[in-house]
Structure formats: structure tokens, C-alpha cells
Design brief:
Blueprint (H helix, E strand, L loop, with lengths): L1 E3 L11 E8 L9 E3 L3 E8 L1 E6 L2 E6 L3 E4 L5 E4 L5 E8 L1 H6 L9
Parallel strand pairs: 1-3
Antiparallel strand pairs: 2-9, 4-7, 4-9, 5-6, 5-8
């Protein structure tokens, strides 16, 4: 199942969301998928896993960086061990105000 992910910026002066999260082994390869209008940059900090990104499966390991384009359906998954990652989601409105149309990035 997929869902639109709405991003509420905690501080309008900082047009991004930066957090750390984990993907836990649960007997399923991928969790629920989501998509959003903002681009998302992932940095894998522990373990290894997979990113399902708009129909493609990408293997990732500690130290890898992946970019999820705007409006791409995506989810993360693991097989053998938990995976930790940091993610940076940059507000689309901020990008457009600075001459970057994130819907045109691939």
C-alpha cells in the first residue's frame, strides 16, 4: 500500500527535515511505500538493505548515499540485519524559490 507523505516543516526558517531512522528486520522485505513532492537524500549509517524507488530496487550498504526524486514511490527494506539511515528532505517551495525545479531532477 502506498500513501502520500505530507511534510510539515518544524521551523519555516529552515526549509528541510533532517532526522535519523531505522529499518528493522520484520520478516518482510519492504515496509509501506510513500511518495512526496520534496526530494529526499538518504545516508546509510549502519547495516545494509534495499531501497525500492519507483520500480527499481537498489542495494545499499553503510556509507552509501541515495537520492529519491520528487513524486517517486519509495520504501526501504532489509533482509538480515537492521539498517540505520539519516535522511534530508528539502522543501520543494524553497527549491523553486531558488531556481531549482525538483520535479525536473532525475
Amino acid at each position: 500500500m502506498s500513501s502520500y507523505e505530507s511534510h510539515n516543516l518544524e521551523d519555516a526558517a529552515l526549509p528541510f527535515i533532517y532526522k535519523e531512522s531505522s529499518v528493522r528486520k520484520r520478516g518482510v522485505m519492504f515496509g509501506s511505500s510513500n511518495w512526496h513532492e520534496n526530494i529526499e537524500i538518504l545516508y546509510i549509517t549502519k547495516g545494509e538493505g534495499f531501497i525500492y524507488n519507483n520500480g527499481h530496487i537498489i542495494s545499499v550498504v553503510k556509507g552509501d548515499v541515495a537520492v529519491i526524486n520528487a513524486n517517486h514511490l519509495h520504501s526501504l527494506g532489509v533482509e538480515d540485519e537492521d539498517m540505520m539511515h539519516r535522511y534530508l528532505i528539502i522543501d520543494r517551495g524553497f527549491c523553486i524559490q531558488n531556481g531549482i525545479d525538483t520535479s525536473a531532477i532525475s
